Amino acid sequence: MKRALIFGLLLASLGAVGCQGSYTSIRQVDAARYQVTRTKQGFFHTYGTVLDCQAKGDEMTCTEISDM
Question: What is the full DSSP assignment across 32-55?
């Protein structure tokens, strides 16, 4: 029972650490519009997303353009 609990805890901790994301590029299109690239890493693959963002005051509203 102890081994199963330790193994489950180890597996859960690896799953929590394995998926990391970062914003790799921000390009200004015009005065209030930006394109942002975000990459994420899973256990077995890395994938990215391109976002189209509109700046409104102190906030940015983003919509996903495509997955890479």
Answer: TEEEEEEEEE-SS-EEEEEEEEEE
List the one residue out of 54, 50, 55, 27 whose CA is nearest residue 40: 50
**pLDDT, position 19:** 62
Beta bridge partners of 8: none
Q: Give Cβ neighbours of residue 33 (< 8 Å, ≥ 6 apart).
A: 52, 53, 54, 55
Q: What is the pLDDT of residues 1-39, one digit of tens each?
A: 788 878 777 666 655 555 667 888 899 999 999 999 988
The values of phi and psi at residue 18, to 5°, are: -70, -20
How much is the pTM? 0.61
